[in-house]
Design goal:
Strand order of the largest sheet: 6-5-4-3-7
Structural class: alpha+beta
Radius of gyration: 27 Å
Number of domains: 4
Distance between the termini: 62 Å
Number of helices: 9
Shape: elongated
């Protein structure tokens, strides 16, 4: 965006005594004419931009100009630092390390205090190929390269060719927002289900007519079928994880919660694993499905 580029130009001018228009155009990947317009807009906004022609010429700010770069408070910087540190858990590039080093110091060259928030996006599975997949997809998104991949779904593993757009982290799961060339629509793919990932040399033209999905939950008041369950007090920690304490009704012998779900199969698979510590109370149709589900399980043994 233009405002971001203008702020970036200002930051460069504050750090360097002199820079050429061609250098700025190359850095921001725009034309020299665009840079000249940005410089005029900066001047119109009150910043003393000086341009000099000829040998040794370039763009600079008046020598006596001072600008308080601390538009962000130390608390603001700590929030930003927490986010960058989280990204650093999946990106160990030199650029990220340099950025972290810069952010850790305040304007007075005083090391910022240890952050009280730590974000770690890495997998518990130390043998996971998760980090390499993240890196490949980020490169594909940046370069607009079509991705070929296997995807494990309830109907089996299928091959997909997609145009990748965004990596999205929701609660504890990473997703890829991509345009599926087979289905001809935008879809969400769980990274954990992606296999045989390959970034092709084919470049796609970015589509503009899409929105980031709302990512509503499948089972907590997100719409769909109303379900009421009861859970033993020994499962309170799971009830809180699933539904939130504010949605629970505590009774003497159990905990009751009513929620909406668009995935009743999730209820069956999850609550069957709780044995006699949990029970579906309503609707009766789901109770009958649970009986059939358990009978099928019992037949295996």
């Amino acid at each position: 965006m233009k405002s971001d580029r203008m702020f970036g130009i200002l930051c460069i001018l504050l750090e360097r005594e002199n820079v050429t228009v061609r250098e700025l155009a190359g850095y921001f990947e725009v034309s020299t004419r665009t840079i000249h317009r940005d410089l005029l807009d900066l001047s119109a906004s009150g910043f003393p931009v000086v341009t000099r022609q000829g040998v040794g010429g370039g763009v600079s700010l008046l020598p006596n100009f001072r600008y308080n770069k601390s538009a962000l408070s130390e608390d603001d910087m700590k929030v930003i630092l927490a986010g960058i540190e989280g990204l650093a858990t999946i990106d160990d590039s030199a650029r990220m390390k340099t950025l972290l080093a810069k952010l850790r110091f305040s304007d007075g060259n005083r090391l910022l205090l240890e952050n009280d928030i730590i974000l770690d996006f890495t997998s518990w599975n130390q043998n996971s190929s998760f980090l390499s997949r993240i890196g490949m997809l980020r490169r594909a998104i940046a370069g607009h390269f079509i991705v070929e991949m296997g995807y494990c779904s309830p109907s089996g593993t299928v091959t997909r060719r997609v145009e990748p757009y965004k990596l999205i982290f929701k609660q504890e799961t990473w997703y890829l927002l991509a345009f599926c060339l087979l289905r001809q629509e935008f879809r969400m793919f769980r990274l954990s289900r992606i296999t045989d990932l390959e970034v092709s040399d084919s470049v796609f033209d970015e589509r503009r007519d899409y929105e980031i999905p709302s990512m509503e939950s499948h089972f907590v008041n997100g719409g769909g079928q109303a379900v009421t369950v009861k859970m033993d007090h020994s499962l309170e920690f799971l009830a809180i994880d699933f539904f939130g304490r504010e949605n629970l009704v505590y009774r003497e012998n159990d905990i009751v919660v009513t929620f909406l779900t668009g995935r009743p199969e999730w209820v069956l698979s999850t609550f069957s694993g709780f044995g006699n510590k949990a029970e579906i109370l309503a609707p009766d149709s789901l109770r009958q499905e649970m009986i059939h589900y358990l009978e099928q399980m019992a037949a295996l043994y």
